[in-house]
From TrEMBL:
Phylogenetic classification of the source organism: Eukaryota, Viridiplantae, Streptophyta, Embryophyta, Tracheophyta
Gene: LOC107791748
Pfam families: PPR, PPR_2
Keywords, comma-separated and alphabetical: Repeat
Name the record gives this protein: Pentatricopeptide repeat-containing protein At3g13150-like
Listed InterPro entries: PPR_rpt, TPR-like_helical_dom_sf
Cross-referenced NCBIfam families: PPR
Length: 207
């Protein structure tokens, strides 16, 4: 992989749009993704520097790759700084970047901050997806917040996003444990009648 970077750097230095092939942001993003997925952060940083040297304007996917890697490697402060840098450059974050920030909160067990990122996601018009809800619902259950988990489940089902039976069942069980029986029954019915036909259950004495 490092040999690939050296070859690309040599190739791109020759290609300036006049005598060679002019590499664009798509090419750089592909390589950034590859380096980050192979945990080659130093090579990814060299690629980022090369992008700036070549005046290749980074986009949301460029930042997504870097932020995701930082979160995966528990460098949350750096991820937050990069998020702010991206916004200052006029690049709007997408759902995937917000999911990375929510994942950082999940790893830290910070439900309240995760909720803030979720609100920010919705406020700028991004659409939450299945990973968004999977992260938030699981975190809400981990933090013993059945109310939040219940609300998130209903919204997720309403948006026709499948977070799988086990996740919804965990919320039903949490509601029962907190004596929120009516809410548990409602979620069970919603889940059974939604397009995914979740096979959910309640304790026999509560059915």
């Amino acid at each position: 992989m490092r040999d690939g970077f050296v070859a690309f750097r040599s190739f791109s230095s020759e290609g300036d749009g006049k005598n060679g092939i002019d590499t664009d942001v798509v090419t750089y993003n592909t390589l950034l993704d590859a380096f980050h997925k192979n945990n080659m952060s130093s090579e990814a940083e060299k690629m980022w520097t090369l992008m700036e040297k070549k005046n290749v304007i980074s986009n949301v996917r460029s930042y997504n790759s870097r932020i995701r890697w930082l979160v995966e490697n528990n460098q949350v402060v750096e991820a937050e700084e990069l998020f702010e840098e991206m916004k200052n450059r006029g690049i709007n974050p997408d759902t995937y970047i917000y999911n990375s920030m929510i994942k950082a909160c999940a790893k830290d067990g910070n439900l309240e901050l995760a909720k803030i990122w979720y609100v920010m996601l919705e406020e700028i018009g991004c659409a939450p997806n299945r990973p968004t809800f999977k992260l938030l619902i699981t975190l809400a259950c981990d933090k013993d917040d059945p109310d939040s988990a219940y609300d998130l489940c209903k919204k997720c089902i309403n948006l026709k996003l499948n977070v799988f039976t086990g996740t919804i069942q965990r919320v039903v069980d949490a509601l029962v444990d907190h004596s929120m029986i009516e809410e548990a029954k409602e979620l069970l019915e919603i889940g059974k009648n939604c397009p995914f036909r979740y096979k959910l259950s309640m304790p026999n004495d509560l059915q």
